[in-house]
Amino acid sequence: MRVPTLTLAAAGVALIAPATLPGAAAALPPEERTAAHGDGADPEAGRGAGPAPAARRDVPAVTRPERGATTPSRGRTTATAPPRTDTGTAPDGAEGAVTAADLLARVGSCAQISAGRYRTDADSPATVPVCGAQGAVFWKADLDIDCDGQTTAHCNAQADPLYSPGTAYVQSDGRPLNAETLPYIVVPAASSRWSPAASGVRGGSVAAVVYQDRVQYAVVGDTGPSDLIGEASYATARGLGIPAGPSDGGVPSGVTYIVFKDSKATPIEDHQAAVTTGERLARQFVTDN
């Protein structure tokens, strides 16, 4: 089941800045943003990009003045990832020398740092803790597809009824991120449960996302509701061999997100920078844990 990120969207309106796509409009007034963000929205999210996203995506909607954080299930395939020979998926194994097995061996136990646990979908129980490790934080969850950002062939309003043209963090040119081409992950908005920034996790932070025997390096590119976790971009899913359809893609479990503390890919849209930094920090993570 897929649920929307905290990107606010109104029907036919794009909330992005400082540079905007055609048809973009100004951000909602502060009082509407506060109501939409709910508990503890990330104060850093969307600087120069309009308001942070409003709720994770579960159901199609005809109009979207806001995305409610408790919307019912939208439905997602429960199948496991397709064979690795599928067109468009990444090569077998990791993007670098550190393997999935190397990383998973270091996250077998959890030293919980979050004050509570997260739900993976709006109608699911809270079962997912955020865990601390030397040099990183991690969690194990599902993967819902985030297709928000620049309009592309696979990420657009026709393909995705809950599509929003903005992301919490933006490229170096001020445009939103491109979910179809850039591997990025979504983190919960700050709350009393957990503040990502307090753990050194911010926009552009580098993550290693692990599924089965694949590793996909990604950046923190969007924020979601403060009580939900487990979402990544279309490109992240493709790199992991996971069905990437914005309405019916993703997997219900088995994905590990390892975010390296105080890391940063510069510029955020440079995937090779994320791979280079991620590979270095992954080797250090394996050594230190």
Note down, in words, how this protein is organized.
- The protein is of the alpha/beta class.
- The chain is 13% helix and 19% strand.
- The protein contains 4 helices and 10 strands; from the N terminus they run ββααβββββββαβα.
- The protein has helices at 30-37, 100-104, 234-239, 271-288, and strands at 14-15, 24-25, 111-112, 131-133, 136-146, 184-188, 206-211, 214-224, 231-233, 251-260.
- The strands form 2 sheets. The chain has a 6-stranded mixed beta barrel with strand order 5-9-6-8-7-10. A two-stranded parallel ribbon has the order 1-2.
- It starts with 13 loop residues before the first strand and ends with a helix.
Summarize this, please?
By secondary structure, the protein is α/β, with parallel strands linked by helices. It is 13% helix and 19% strand.
Listing every helix as H and every strand as E from the N terminus to the C terminus, the arrangement reads EEHHEEEEEEEHEH
List low-pLDDT spans.
Answer: 4-44, 46-92
Name the structural class: alpha/beta
Provide a count of the helices. Answer: 4
Cα separation of the termini = 33 Å
Quick one: how many beta strands? 10
Strand arrangement within the widest β-sheet reads 5-9-6-8-7-10
How much strand content do the residues show? 15-25%
Keywords:
two-stranded parallel ribbon, alpha/beta, 4 helices, globular, single chain
Write the layout of secondary structure elements.
Layout: E1 14-15, E2 24-25, H1 30-37, H2 100-104, E3 111-112, E4 131-133, E5 136-146, E6 184-188, E7 206-211, E8 214-224, E9 231-233, H3 234-239, E10 251-260, H4 271-288
Parallel strand pairs: 1-2, 5-9, 6-8
Antiparallel strand pairs: 3-4, 4-5, 5-10, 6-9, 7-8, 7-10
